[in-house]
Amino acid sequence: MSREDAPQFHPALLAPGSLVGPWRVLDWVSRGVNGAVYRVVRIGQEHVPPAALKLALLPDDPRFQRERELLSRCLHPHIPRLLDSGFWLSPSGARYPFVTMEWVDGVPLYDWARMFRPSAAQQLRLLSQAALALQYLHAQDALHRDLKGANLLVRRSDSRLFVTDFGSSIYPDAASLTPQQLPPGTPAYRSPEAWLFIQRHRLSSERYRPGPADDVFALGVTACVLATGKYPDMGDLKKDAQGSWYLEALRLPRALSSARVPAPQREMILQMLAIRPEERISAADLPPALERAADSLGSCSSDASADPSALPGQRSRRFPWISASALGAFLARAVGVSLLLLLGVRDGARPAPDAEPLATCTSPFQGQPTGLGEAAASAEPSAGPPSTSQSVASDTLPEPFEAQAQPDKKGRCPHSRQVILNGACWARTAVSREECDVLQGEMYQGACYVPVFPPGSSKRPNTSGARAPR
Q1: Which helix (H) or strand (E) holds 76?
Q2: pTM over 0.70, yes/no
Q3: 390 vs 26, 38, 309, 376, 434, CA distance in Å?
Q4: For the chain, which domains are there?
Q5: Which one-letter DSSP state was computed for residue 4?
Q6: Residue 363 burial (10 A CB sphere; 0-12, 13-18, 19+)
Q7: Taking the C-alpha atoms of 386, 23, 17 and 168 in order, what is their torsion angle to the nearest 10 degrees?
Q8: Which of 89, 190, 319, 388 could bridge 111 with an S-S bond, Cβ 3.0-4.6 Å?
Q9: How confident is the model at residue 229 (pLDDT cuts 50, 70, 90)?
């Protein structure tokens, strides 16, 4: 093995003591789709608090320039401060960009909620902090474009929330980096107007231009998951008499309409999830509205929060109208092209029972550090200790779909790397619970199992809950 190919010289696997510009690596924290995160100290200043260094996995990755530029414009209590940026030179001479930011000793939002089971008032106050960051970004005509639970960190020392991962963000005059119709992001958090655009322009090359309302909708999805443990379902797009596509209503979790979610919290979630962007509450109005709703509930009420075991992994989300190519593009970005060879990319997912209510209110000031929290958003297997979200695994065999591929008479699936569970074929992959949800898979014994469908099959999974006979 050459020195250039040695693992310790790969940007995702730098050993403690490695030098990246003026920074010395203390330890590896996590790995995401686009970068690896390390805890570092500045050389010669080892007595000062550590920083978080995010290093690109691809040479000269332009997304890091965009992230650096936006962070350089931000000075906000709920956005990590940019400390430095530059390039790490590999032994082969390739340049890998990095950004160094304020270290946030925090826990990803859903993990935090799973551990501490916050009351509705606590949830609203945390979301208000995220809304303040959005308010600040939108005032600069900037957008985050990938807001989700994995990119929101709750600092364990004081419960301050930080918005992280600006690799998909955009600001005035920023260059376009991807040719797809939809910008980078996570499908489960996309707005109705984004999916309507794809349906209306599926035969054109016109690109969707997100607005501030897209970020607000993503925060609404986060709020819904936090309150109920389940994601809102876009439902079916329809055509009117003139042939125009429209969405009549979201399919919201039943728990959102129950007594488990107090009326002030429910109203705020519905305002953020309004189908029409012009009817959605703005980021400018959102922080005070969330604070008023929290005040109306008191600092520690007896209202229920979602089952922590269902935050957010024990549910499925249906995209019956998303094209296979659109979902395939996301899969290629999230888990690599090799997984596409294992999966028959099909539409649909199974419904899941509502989460059970909880009625506790505990101190939110403890937890384990996770750096920038990229492990929770990552589609790569973690080389470090399992996170809280990874340790909560289901031991129940996943139920197959009616149309799912089954092994042949010799007990073989369509691809040699697929596995057989419960009489059906699945693709096993090591991703986070949240990414498993997006892939419409099932967590089982710490791994994500995504259903496989026969190549060329035109039959969609039955989303009414019917299963393949056993």
Answers
A1: none
A2: no
A3: 24, 20, 11, 9, 10
A4: 3-102 (3.30.200.20), 106-314 (1.10.510.10), 317-350+390-459 (no CATH)
A5: G
A6: exposed
A7: 30
A8: 388
A9: very high
